[in-house]
Amino acid sequence: MHYVSPWMTPELDTFRSAVRRFVEGEIVPHQERWRKQQHVDRDLWRKGGEIGILLADIPDEYGGSGGSFAHQSIVFEELGYAGDMAFGIHVHAIVAHYLLNQGTEEQKRKYLPRLASGEMVADIAMTEPGAGSDLKGIRTTARRDGDGYLINGSKTFISNGYLADLILVVAKTSPEEGARGVSLMLVEVRDAPGFRVGRILEKMGQKGQDTCELFFDDVRCGPNSVLGGVEGKGFVQLMTELPYERTILGVAGVAAIERALQLTIDYTRERKAFGQALIEMQNTRFVLAEIKTEATVARTFIDRCIVDMIEGRMDTVLASMAKYWISDLQCTVVDRCLQLFGGYGYMLEYPIAQMYLDARVQRIYGGANEIMKEIIAREL
Ligand SMILES: Cc1cc2nc3c(=O)[nH]c(=O)nc-3n(C[C@H](O)[C@H](O)[C@H](O)COP(=O)(O)OP(=O)(O)OC[C@H]3O[C@@H](n4cnc5c(N)ncnc54)[C@H](O)[C@@H]3O)c2cc1C
């Protein structure tokens, strides 16, 4: 069965080949070292900027590569096929989309070209020790002071936290107004007095990704730091942009499912037991047939989501379905594949073991899957 995603074109094939070469040359050889140091090399960001994969779907007038969501999806797919969970382009691109869709013209011109080139690395800081799913409970504040703002508070579990120069901080500009008092603040943190990166957190998987605690103690930012220029719009901006993040997680999840399947087909063809290859046993064949079917259903569904994104009609409910259903499936598929590797599946030198550890968090971050179901259920 040969299936080609309906959004693929010859131009995108060429782009995919270029991304694959980059991933094979600049990422795969360093993955083990990055896992040990808990972050990628800073230089990788500049190299990614040079070949135009950091902001593949941001218009060229803002320094992006001028492609569509198809281009950006190819970047995430190729990272997924190589088993990379360290290079935080996902979060970086998410911040760029907040800027593109919600920022003022001045903010776009100031930051997007620097994010596209890799001169600046971005992250988004929503979660706090006391507030994750329930973001209304955040305590970080951005108070007016002189002609700017002072940021105070702490954030945790922040991807790209160690390397980031620009942080989109979810903060209360008017704490007394509840959800309506929340704003997204653009904070330049490189050498900023009062800003401190805590530990790079030790995770069960995705070890090459710098997930950190961040501390803000009277960190000063300028008068034009509120995303979009108007205070109190934070929650609306989050609701508008979260579907982009959730679709990306779906794209990466399908790539992981496809990779796990292929690795397992290859392994069970080679491995012999009871005088035959594992793939000749009925159980193996049935498990792989089921996973192939599930992978095809997931691919067809995510392709529909990608087309909706390209055409600008993705909605919150569909993005939540993609995030929840694909991440659940990813965990099940990787677990079933691992079983077919026997003891070797439990050894970290086998990619399937790494994939098992990397997959688990997909059901938690980007909005826990229970929150996705709440969003879907609200529209029933
Ligand atoms: C590796 C990693 C990277 C991350 N990167 C980032 C990042 O870059 N930026 C950022 O801001 N955050 C990031 N996060 C944080 C992540 O988004 C949160 O962990 C997530 O939103 C859940 O919040 P919480 O951990 O506080 O769990 P809680 O909110 O305490 O929820 C715990 C569990 O309770 C259940 N639950 C909660 N609310 C409901 C509900 N309404 N109905 C039913 N069940 C519910 C769910 O099962 C949930 O998993 C990251 C987390 C990890 C682990």
For the structure shown, list the relevant keywords.
380 residues, alpha+beta, Butyryl-Coa Dehydrogenase, subunit A, domain 1, Butyryl-CoA Dehydrogenase, subunit A, domain 2, Butyryl-CoA Dehydrogenase, subunit A, domain 3, four-stranded antiparallel beta sheet, three-stranded mixed beta sheet, 48% helix, globular, binds flavin-adenine dinucleotide
Describe the structure.
The protein is an alpha+beta fold and 380 residues long. It has three domains: 10-121, Butyryl-Coa Dehydrogenase, subunit A, domain 1 (Orthogonal Bundle); 123-232, Butyryl-CoA Dehydrogenase, subunit A, domain 2, CATH 2.40.110.10; 236-378, Butyryl-CoA Dehydrogenase, subunit A, domain 3. It is built from eleven helices and nine strands. It has helices spanning 10-27, 31-37, 42-50, 69-81, 89-102, 105-117, 234-270, 282-310, 316-340, 351-359, 369-378; strands at residues 122-125, 141-145, 148-158, 166-172, 182-188, 195-200, 212-221, 272-273, 276-277. A four-stranded antiparallel sheet has the order 2-3-7-6, with no helix packed on it. A hairpin with a 2-residue loop joins strand 2 (141-145) and strand 3 (148-158). The chain is globular, with a radius of gyration of 21 Å. It starts with 9 loop residues before the first helix and ends with a helix. The mean pLDDT is 97. Flavin-adenine dinucleotide is lined by residues 91, 123-127, 132-134, 157-159, 203, 206, 211, 361, 364-365, 367-368, 370-371, 374. Flavin-adenine dinucleotide binds at residues 91, 123-127, 132-134, 157-159, 203, 206, 211, 361, 364-365, 367-368, 370-371, 374.
